[in-house]
From TrEMBL:
This is alpha-L-fucosidase. GO terms for cellular component: lysosome. Residues 1-21 form the signal peptide. Transmembrane segments: none annotated. Residues 59-327 form the Glycoside hydrolase family 29 N-terminal domain. SUPFAM superfamilies: (Trans)glycosidases (SSF51445), Galactose-binding domain-like (SSF49785). Keywords: Glycosidase, Hydrolase, Signal. It comes from the Bacteria. The lineage of its organism: Bacteria, Pseudomonadati, Bacteroidota, Cytophagia, Cytophagales. One of its GO terms (molecular function) is alpha-L-fucosidase activity. Belongs to the glycosyl hydrolase 29 family. InterPro entries: FUC_metazoa-typ, Galactose-bd-like_sf, GH, Glyco_hydro_29, Glyco_hydro_29_N.
């Protein structure tokens, strides 16, 4: 694609050789590495796939689990082509059925007719991920509607032992996913979870893995399952005030400017209306255009995108889901092309996270004039989050080739922020930072033209 020469007028940018002090909290090495992944997949495949429900009751017969053509290589191959960096598998959902032959439950694939009880879905996916260069993640619901120990102190040890199996037998794990659901078990009791024990198991056996729940400890739920983060999206959060299943979580979903811990948000959304496969949803798969909008509203709002793919009763990703994912990959390739000329000597345009533009006390704005107007509908900014998240509010003034102006007000930036708007021939733009925690640092600035599958502007 043709790129355009930039002229900079009133570009208030400063290069400083001295080190800049971090604004705390800051991400750990594993949290920083996780942020760089940006996009990966969820695989909901379990007993619910065969009983055609979203939440099982724990009374299902293991004989119901019998995929006819299960192929984890197909899952991994499609995920890789879609641009995903990893896959997280539902090793055990709320009904308690385990996709691997655990020693600590009798409700698992070992009791199913699939492969005469000798199968192990976790192992097959682990091998497929290694083959295709993907990272493996594990979802293990703490809620268990089958296990007879659920609701007693013994169950916490059972869960921890299942964690140990999954964390030691299948290679590196990049993310361990807890579900906040906590209902009654078969004895009518609810479990008081030993979160300190659960977290310690992951830290012991997979210290580079991040742990997900409403409250982290490493990454957190965004607060909805519709595929978007919020205009204000802080990675810092008052972590000690929330917990998985917290009833007033909505008060914390945006994070807090004065947050005590770094716990970045993750956007989890399904490519279909349901999380599990249902035949009557075959024609309700999200379109590539919808997925690109979700991408802009998740990755483009300081979050990672965890896109769910419900594997069908054959044990395969359905053709409709695969087609949508391939279309999504294609329009991302076309759309995520930086229209601003790369300049290796300018920290704003060198494409590196290790360098940055720094606002000076008297000049807090960035102004860019384009020698040739370009069709644009998205601007992207990044902060060097290794030094903390700083910008709390900013505004962008757009000027088209006819001199028409529009001002867009926005909240936080963080790892990545995309500002989308009606496409125009952009002549110049100015970014004014109106609120921050410490000096403003911007590591990258890019411009895109997000387009639909019909090669039309996606943001009209």
């Amino acid at each position: 694609m043709k790129r355009f020469t930039l002229l900079f007028a009133l570009l208030s940018y400063s290069l400083f050789s001295q080190k800049v002090a971090p604004v705390y909290p800051i991400p750990s090495a594993k949290q920083l590495a996780w942020s760089e992944l940006e996009f990966y997949g969820f695989i909901h495949f379990n007993m619910n796939t065969f009983t055609n429900v979203e939440w099982g009751e724990g009374k299902e017969s293991p004989s119901s689990f019998n995929p006819t053509a299960l192929d984890c290589n197909q899952w991994a191959r499609i995920a890789k082509k879609a641009g995903m960096k990893g896959l997280i598998l539902t090793a055990k959902h709320h009904d308690g059925f385990a996709l691997y032959p655990s020693k600590y439950t009798t409700h698992s694939v070992a009791k199913s007719p699939w492969k005469n009880g000798k199968g192990d879905v976790v192992k097959e996916l682990s091998e497929a991920c290694k083959k295709y260069g993907l990272k493996l993640g594990i979802y293990l619901s703490p809620w268990d509607r089958f296990h007879p120990a659920y609701g007693t102190d013994d169950y916490n040890q059972v869960y921890a032992k299942m964690q140990e199996e999954l964390l030691t037998n299948y290679g590196p794990i990049f993310e361990f996913w807890y579900d906040g659901a906590n209902g009654e078990g078969p004895n009518g009791k609810k479990q008081v979870y030993d979160w300190d024990l659960f977290h310690s198991m992951v830290n012991k056996y997979q210290p580079t893995a991040v742990q997900f729940s409403d409250a982290g400890p490493d990454i957190r739920w965004v607060g909805n399952e519709r595929g978007y983060a919020y205009d204000t999206m802080w990675s810092p959060i008052l972590r000690d005030k929330i917990y998985p299943g917290c009833p007033d979580f909505d008060n914390y979903r945006n994070g807090q400017e004065n947050g005590t811990h770094w716990v970045s948000p993750e956007v989890d959304v399904s490519i279909r209306p349901g999380w599990y496969y249902h035949r009557d949803q075959d024609n309700k798969v999200k379109t590539p255009d919808s997925l690109l909008k979700i991408y802009a509203a998740s990755v483009g709002r300081n979050s990672n995108l965890l896109l769910n793919i419900p594997v069908d009763t054959r044990g395969l990703i359905h053709e409709n889901d695969s087609a949508s994912l391939m279309g999504f990959a294609a329009i991302r390739t076309k759309s995520l092309v930086n229209l601003l000329k790369k300049n290796s000597s300018d920290p704003l345009f060198d494409g590196k996270n290790s360098t940055y533009w720094m606002a000076s006390p008297k000049k807090k704005d960035i102004r860019v004039e384009l020698k040739t107007p370009i069709s644009v509908n998205t601007l992207m900014l990044e902060e060097p989050i290794a030094l903390g998240q700083r910008v709390s509010s900013f505004e962008v003034e757009l000027v088209d080739e006819l001199g028409n102006k529009e001002v867009i007000k926005a909240g936080t930036i963080g790892h990545k922020r995309m500002i989308t708007f009606k496409e125009r021939k952009l002549k110049s733009f100015q970014i004014r930072f109106t609120g921050s925690r410490g000096p403003v640092l911007i590591s990258n600035l890019e411009a895109y033209r997000f387009i639909s599958t019909r090669n039309e502007p996606l943001f009209q």
